[in-house]
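User: Sequence for Carboxylic ester hydrolase below. Tokens please.
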Amino acid sequence: METVKISAPSLGGVTITGVKNSEATVQFRGLQYASIEKRYDYPTRVDKYEADVDATEHGAIPPQPARVPSPVIPKDQLPTSSPPQDEFACLNLNITRPSSIPLTQKIPVIVWIFPGANTFGSASDKSYDPTSLVARSAEKDLPIMFVNLNYRLSLLGFVYVDGRANHSMYDQTEALLWVKSHIADFGGDVENITLMGVSAGSLMTHYHSLSKPTAGMFKRIGMMSTVIESRTPFPLEDAKALAAKAKELCGVSSDEELKTVPVETLIDYAVPIIGGMYGPVNDGGWLGEVGEDYIDRLPLDNVEAVMLGNTRFESIFYMPKIGLIPTEERYKRLTEVPVVGDWLAKEYDISPDPATDAESLAKLTQMYDDISYGQPVDMTVRKLRESGKFKTFHYLFDEPNPYLASLDAHHLVDVLFLFNSFKFDAKYDGFVDKYQTGWIRFANGLEPWGEGVSDVVMLNQDITVRKHGEYEQRRRAHAFAKLNQFRHKYDAYNVTKRFLYV
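Assistant: Structure tokens for Carboxylic ester hydrolase:
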């Protein structure tokens, strides 16, 4: 193992040893950015290391339930092990940079927030290994460095305890502040940072772009698939109910007792039973004031450019979960939704007595896709462009799964091509090059797909300028327009979760 040493003046003048993980890149792994002493403490940023740091191995990852291996990646390419889980040592990050670029040349930085419903995932997950992306950036003479960060998940990161919540958002905030304060030691340009993510990571990116605690920490954002309109802040009453459920499952009655529950009980038992997606809580803290207009808020002035889009068939993986709901119950569950339930049933032709189960399932999945991904992204693009304040680049990712085309362009398939950390057929080489280069150009402050190009389609192993009328052909724009009449009147997550949990 070849190592690389740097001096870190801003971190106490220590020497940090990284590993050359490819011919073109070096990684500094498991760097602690914050500390916590007790469960549900807010994090304290670590701005000085007391001794030299061995950063050749990945740090601990946040505790999370066991996962079924990904069905979209060949089994022989899946990793066989991962770093240990530790709720107190998981606030660490990884930095990947081109080995050929001297530290004196300050280069743009991408900070990545991983996906997983804020329940699963880690900075060291192979799916988000940026080695290929960073290497290509150096090849293109547009070098970037990449930061993967860990943060607390699920009932450790978002539960409402001691009158406060959003521990994960504070974790991410301290990570961004750490990057802003110390990335120059690694050759990063502190004035040229892009924050981005996919799914839950995209959602967190959107929240950060609106929020004062991280104002000025980055100048560009990338949002892949998920935006705030599809997952608005948890109402405080919902957060209190979730905390009560966690206590009930763990056999305790107070916040103090919840702090002493074995982490295995909390994560391996309570989290799977509760299920769902976790996210920021409207507790008056990290989010500040949240009103009905929250989904209309624009990124703060420090953000100059936004790139966002979604895949053609985001919701295909939810079909099995929706299918667990008995056919005869689906109509009832939908029409019980206040304000929009009856309208949605009529609009999507969801009846109490469908001709077939498959027909019912297909219609509900389409509804799920529209209200969770299609309409929210569509409206976000419109709001950004109407404001005239941001360079806004919109893509339609319609390239099917490279291993199983029948899965179509499903949720997260774009990540496979962005990181290129698994082996594909050689026919995808040109597409990977174009796709990675677009994000590299964006992080360098350039127009990602070429001069004057703001809207593209990714399909047939190519990226092409979107033609007139092609958006309406590839996305259900007519349905989005109808859904817009109910903006502010319902929460997409509270509709769709009725069909994900038996």
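The chain has a mean pLDDT of 95.
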